[in-house]
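Figure 6 in text form: structure in, sequence out.
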């Protein structure tokens, strides 16, 4: 699924649906990194007094991070998200620094890197770092542990 410069409809790969989907586009992904965008809309459930909340920022980072490892569970030429079903969990928040809360209608760009990964029987346990920017200003820096698991229907 590695793509650069061609937006991928991440909604086809994440199990999240509105109002929990906190990624709008994914302009880049490879085996160790990803870049996503999120346009904060007025109907977002993670708004408080016109600002996107801390919980929303962490969930945006987790959804972004999951794309790195999650893509390996799909067939290489699957750009529609039909070859598998996954579920992911934040298993630990190792570090989070939130410098500013963004407002409605602002666009977040989140960049994540895979730091470590352990796979066993359809489950991946991984550590990822993530940085979220608004207008090139760093507003969130975090390190998360995630568990990504195949869902057998």
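Output sequence:
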């Amino acid at each position: 699924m590695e793509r650069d410069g061609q937006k991928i409809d991440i909604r086809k790969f994440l199990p999240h649906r509105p109002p929990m989907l906190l990624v709008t586009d994914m302009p880049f992904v490879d085996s160790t990194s990803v870049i996503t965008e999120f346009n904060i809309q007025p109907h977002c459930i993670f708004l408080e007094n016109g600002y996107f909340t801390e919980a929303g920022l962490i969930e945006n980072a987790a959804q972004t991070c999951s794309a790195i490892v999650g893509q390996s569970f799909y067939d290489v030429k699957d750009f529609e998200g039909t070859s598998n079903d996954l579920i992911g969990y934040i298993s630990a928040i190792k570090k989070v620094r939130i410098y500013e809360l963004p407002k409605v209608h602002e666009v977040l760009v989140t960049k994540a890197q895979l730091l470590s990964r352990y796979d066993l029987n359809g489950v991946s346990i991984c550590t990822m770092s993530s940085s979220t920017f608004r207008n090139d200003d760093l507003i969130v820096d975090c390190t998360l542990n995630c568990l990504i698991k195949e869902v057998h229907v």
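Caption detail: Strands lie at 3-8, 25-29, 33-39, 47-48, 51-52, 86-98, 107-120, 123-134, 137-150.
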